[in-house]
Design goal:
- Helix 4 links the parallel strand 4 (110-116) and strand 5 (140-141).
- With 189 residues, this protein is α/β, with parallel strands linked by helices.
- It is built from six helices and six strands, in the order βαβαβαβαββαα.
């Protein structure tokens, strides 16, 4: 079987973000034959604007994201919760990859959402908004692969998520569920 490729999109741009650490840990838990790559260019993408989404002149950063999403088998979105919803950078990534509507790079792509916040709510509002945006954009949302982390400021204050046995197990399960969905998708093609 060929290598399964998963692209992780992290909704926090902060270098020391716990959401980024969760994505890094998810990548480390990938089973043999699975590559999880964190996308690094979300900060460079302009806000979606149909006036600049013109064939031949799409901003290079937006085209690079579209190309990266088109080349992988599945997506793992890791979202913080900002003011009760997902971050603008993550929503913007969904918007760019959903175009052209019905034929965007995200269309039909299996996707899972991991949400994390400092509140006990575990970013479930952001999670719900991410799931909704992915579904409307045409992604195949893998409900069984979803994961929520609450009170991350306390839970991961003195250690990286990779040092938390429960987090490792949960992230590994999420990645495994997403990989199974991508393989099911590939088998039906």
């Amino acid at each position: 079987m060929s290598q399964t490729r998963i692209l992780a999109l992290v909704g926090s741009l902060r270098a020391a973000s716990i959401n980024r650490q969760l994505a890094e840990t998810a990548a480390q838990t990938a089973p043999e034959g699975v590559e999880v790559t964190l996308y690094g260019g979300l900060a460079d993408i302009p806000f979606y604007n149909e006036d600049i989404d013109v064939p031949g002149s799409v901003p290079a950063a937006a085209q690079a994201l579209r190309d990266a999403v088109a080349e992988v088998d599945g997506l793992l979105l890791v979202t913080p919760e900002y003011n009760g919803t997902l971050s603008a950078v993550l929503k913007n990534a969904i918007d760019w990859t959903s175009r052209p509507y019905g034929a965007g790079a995200i269309t039909g792509k299996p996707a899972a959402v991991v949400s994390a916040s400092i509140s006990p709510n575990a970013a479930q509002w952001a999670h719900g908004d991410a799931v909704k945006a992915l579904g409307v954009a045409g992604a195949k949302v893998v409900e069984s692969a979803h994961l929520h982390f609450g009170v991350i400021g306390e839970r991961f204050a003195s250690s990286h998520p990779r040092d938390d046995a429960e987090a490792l197990t949960e992230l590994a399960s999420t990645v495994r569920e997403l990989v199974e969905a991508t393989r099911g998708q590939l088998a039906s093609v």
